[in-house]
Known about the structure:
By secondary structure, the chain is mostly beta strands. The chain has one helix and 17 strands. The chain has two domains: 12-140, Sandwich (Jelly Rolls), CATH 2.60.120; 146-253, Jelly Rolls. 2% of the residues lie in helices and 46% in strands.
Amino acid sequence: MRENDPGTIQVIDADDRTALLDIVAGNGQAWPVIWPKTGATLRSFHRISLASGGATKLLNHPAEASYYVLGGKGQVRNADAAFDLLEGSMIHIEPRTNYLFVADDGMELIGGPCPTDPAIYSGPATGEAQKSAGRIRMFHRDDPGVQVPLISRDARLIIWLGAGSETANLNFVKIQPGEGNVPHIHAESEDTIYILEGRGTVADFDHDLRLDFGPGQVIHVPVGVRHAVYADKGERVVSVGGPAPADRGMLRAAGLYPR
Length: 259
């Protein structure tokens, strides 16, 4: 373990409801997965599970937020707009923007503010009392995006610096059996990866660790840890997530950011 150790990689079960968040108005639950109690400060991932007709409270954060729709249908709304959501929808919330989610027959989401918003863990949501200052922007995992071979042959930057996101980035990545990332470091970013499909391993080269993961689990990589994700169990691995804030060094290496 090196001096000034930033911590090790963790693989966390996203269905662990030990703690609940007071952000749902009715017909559902929300709970933290990646948050300060797991050592995260730059990215939060919350699971939101809404039953038919369920909705969150009105939310508003000092910084950006982003979400991915795992399944079901519904809407994201504020006073100015309403956007339809379906599986694969990706939502970018600008800072100080009011928003809420409403389910049709049911909807499942993963995401949250980046950096973490301490107020969300200290009591009921208070978006109702705040002025909305930004926009809700919609994306989808099947939009063309931008490819980054460093990650895999099919690694799509969807919500990223080039699309106007500074901190709440979301990539959609497919890693074919036998494929893996080029080992890399995010010098100023936390990497958070939700596994949608497939089993594999993540390597933490700084601590000589190799951890198994599977569907419904989240890999959290602290700042500065050299790591790589591998589809080394004979299955394709599909994930959503990415470094927060934007990793300008990685983008420069891929020719996607000015030197």
